[in-house]
Amino acid sequence: MVQLTINGKTIEVPEGTSVLRAAESAGITIPTLCDHPDLTPFGGCRLCVVDVQGFRTPMTSCTLQATQGMVVQTETPALIEARKFILEMLLSTYHDPNLLATSNGAKDTQFMGWVKQYGLEPGKLMSPEPRYPVNSDPNPFVWVDLNKCIVCTRCVRACAEVQGRFVWNTAERGFNTHIVAGSDTDMLSARCESCGACVAYCPTGALNNKMSIDDVHPDRLVTTTCTYCGVGCTFDLNVVDDSQGGRVVKVTSNPDAPVNGMHLCVKGRYGYDFIHHEDRLTRPMVRQYLLDEYKGQPSPRPADRGPWVETDWNTALDITAGKLRHARDTYGADTVGVLTSAKCLNEENYLMNKFARQVIGTNNIDHCARL
């Protein structure tokens, strides 16, 4: 452990901890844009600079390791002016024609949060003209607007270190530096899996979700577990309250998720449209002739098996159990097959395995997880 002083407060942290993390552990906020706890420190935005006693110039707290006896100041007048200047420079190449609108989420980005924290007026300071085309990549899920990019490289590091796909990189130098997919191609050609990790880590909205780019600001977040497989990833449903009780407009990562953290696959992040799909079943459905048979009013089976009708769960389960029992007892257990779902929990699929092998008596069991 090493002991240091930040803003007059004595803090003890493990050796190797950065000054930025040491400050966070003591409840002291140091502004940053390029840094994220999940990613390798970069020190590119320079917003997290601090004054360290004995050092000639301000140092980036995300890359500076805390040492024994270090004395740090995080909010001197000179540092505040330096951060304002840095934000002004970043705004000089930033362009968003809908900056004051809430539909594109610009007001809620981490970048805009610090701009307003330091009293700057983004509408007056941003670049008057765009430098890049908007929605410049054909990826079906990720919206790319490099006019909002500050080259913090969080997307580059997230793709490499979280997803392991290495899609994003930087091209050109100096004022013309910008992110590119692969060898300056489109994302899918660069082996993108459309997981949206780059979107989740982007602090400016340069990378966004196409499915929700025009949606209004959510009224609430609902933390839930993904239904697509048994891993148990957790995320936040962004819900807009309406006359139907709520509409999911997008999915965002929950950094406190115990299994996956900020990471999600393409299904978890973008496969939520089934929730409100017009074809989604919300009650059990059975064929009319089966329902008549169950009620003691047997009728001939139609050639097309007849219409579907709604019923209650007990009735639907009784009909299903009766048909499975009849097939097993009449034609043998191996005439029955069980198909489980990747949307079930591991425990539910375990029970389905027991049901197939011990109740029905067959090894004919498969699943639908064809990722």
Offer a concise description of the structure:
The protein has 371 residues and is an alpha+beta fold.
Overall tally of structural domains: 4
Helix content: 25-40%
- Kindly report the average pLDDT value: 92
Q: Please count the helical segments.
A: 10
CATH architecture designation of the largest domain: 2-Layer Sandwich
Stated plainly, the CATH topology of the largest domain is called Alpha-Beta Plaits
- For the record, give the distance between the C-alpha atoms at the N and C termini, rounded to a whole number: 45 Å
Number of strand elements: 16
What spatial order of strands do you see in the largest sheet? Answer: 2-1-5-3-4
Text of the CATH class of the largest domain = Alpha Beta
Shape: elongated
Can you tell me about this structure?
This protein is an alpha+beta fold. It folds into four domains: 2-75, Ubiquitin-like (UB roll), CATH 3.10.20.740; 87-212, Alpha-Beta Plaits; 220-276, N-terminal domain of TfIIb (Single Sheet), CATH 2.20.25.90; 285-366, no CATH class. It contains ten helices and 16 strands. It has helices spanning 19-25, 77-92, 110-117, 122-125, 154-163, 197-201, 266-270, 288-294, 313-331, 346-360, and strands spanning 2-6, 9-13, 49-52, 59-60, 71-73, 142-144, 168-171, 178-181, 207-209, 220-225, 234-240, 247-253, 285-287, 308-310, 338-339, 365-366. The strands form six sheets. The protein has a five-stranded mixed beta sheet, with helices on one face. The protein has a three-stranded antiparallel beta sheet with strand order 10-11-12. Strand 15 (338-339), helix 10 (346-360) and strand 16 form a beta-alpha-beta unit. It is elongated and about 90 Å long. It starts with a strand and ends in a 5-residue tail after the last strand. Mean pLDDT is 92; it is low at 102-106.
